[in-house]
Amino acid sequence: MTPTSYYVARFAQAFGFFRRNQRMSEAASELHLLREAETQLGIAVWTKVENIEALSVEYWNLRRFLKERNEIQEQLAVCQSRLDEAHEVRANVINGTPEAQQVHLDERVALLTELEKLAIERDHIIADAREVRRSYDGLKMKLEVLTGEASDTPEGQKQITTVKQKLQEFQKRFAELKQERIEIGERIDQGDAQLDDVDQKLAETRQSRRVSASEAFQSIGDGTKEVSALRASSGVLDTQMRQLYAEVGRYVSRNAHWDAACAAATSEHRGLVDIMRALRRSISLNHHLAKNK
Predict the structure, then answer these.
(1) What is the pTM of this model?
(2) For a surface tag, which of 46, 50, 255, 260 has the fewest beta carbons within 10 Å of its beta carbon?
């Protein structure tokens, strides 16, 4: 939104034309663009902010995270190479095994895949339960405060009743998540038992090939877990680095017009800085119009 369009909108408001939802929607869209621009600017200029004291923490954390991520990528490449070799060994074993053994091998792969999905689902349920518990603890504290401060007023009693109902909902949801976790745990136990049964059948049929096949599957299992763990670690670092990039981009773009160090860091990105400045002004104008209703 430009100053001209702002005054046009203010003029329209004077005659009763209010578009609060549209203004808030435009502000939200522009804020998303601004945050993305801050991140991209931070990625482009973070190596140039070493001497900016206000960004010292972000700069050195980015240096450390970048080093850690490179180390993880190297480990991931090595692990992936081992995993590829293990898959090749597995393929050779499968291609040279009898049909009955092939059936058991396929069944084992399917079970491992299903168990991995169940483990991921259980992790999600545990994470959801933690969030429910955190919200429950917050509401419980709120209830204690309301009970002590506002229990003698009708409005206070209404708030207390609402909080209690919400607490009951959280308790119910937590119980549901607990039951889901138990059920998935039982399914995992059943899957483990089935996996043991399949392994036993393979042990009875593979004979001389048993050792090499077992080693291949073990390597695949370990390699897959290691790859997943490394990728998860890399993802966490990427998220932390993206947040730091955004902080860097936000700071230098806000101060580029009066701080010489920020101006120097963003000298090759003046156009982007100007766009970001215009976005901030437009967001502010849209919020101002929305509040004037």
Answers:
(1) 0.49
(2) 260
